[in-house]
Amino acid sequence: MxxxxxxxxxxxxxxxxxxxxxxxxxxxxxxxxxxxxLKTGIIDGPIGTSVIERIDGKAVTVRCAHDTPSLPxxxxxxLAPPRPRxxxxxxxxxxxxxxxxxxxxxxxxxxxxxxxxxxxKEEIYRPLLVDGLQQAGTTQLPTIHVSRNFAHFMKRxxxxxxxxxxxxxxxxxxxAGTRSQALRPVFVRGQIPVLAVGPEGGWTDAELALLAEKGxxxxxxxxxxxxxxxxxxxxxxxxxxxxxx
Length: 245
Hints:
- The protein is of the alpha/beta class.
- Helices cover 30% and strands 27% of the residues.
């Protein structure tokens, strides 16, 4: 937990009092004491510091000063979700890595049982995203959007949702028995790229054709077939380094 985050409603007259896992971290890991300065921030708001004013048992009260913009997210993600257990591990990492919007789409090879998972409830996934932000020291919470029909999403919602966003990249090592080509995308200052990552069984040829129609170029990590969470973290790491170079 590299930056402790507060909901906007938690800070009143510059003070926040809390006794949850954040307080446990301050007292048990940071060995917090009155007068100590902490890195803090407001979810979807600025970052700054807070000074511990009072410790009352397991409760901590801090005085906050948040006036610095947080590092903004930099990429949107279209994701055919893996199994709920893998998705639960993945969400904090997506927040840490700066994903702005996550579009969960019902590609053909997504397990149908996923759509009934408790993980799709905001009260379940939101704390996972906040945990990732606290690790990265940023505050901009990714938004999650669900579309169970991939073709419907691409034909009816894509243009208005991603207007003007480039580059557009789809990760898929094979299609119709053909190796995809390595890609070095060109990033345009001020634009948010879009990355599409398929299910562990891969995109179908029809799904790849829909993505190609919308201007997606294929990117390969090589011939190994990777799990979704492994491939996604590797792809975001590569793209993040290319964007900043």
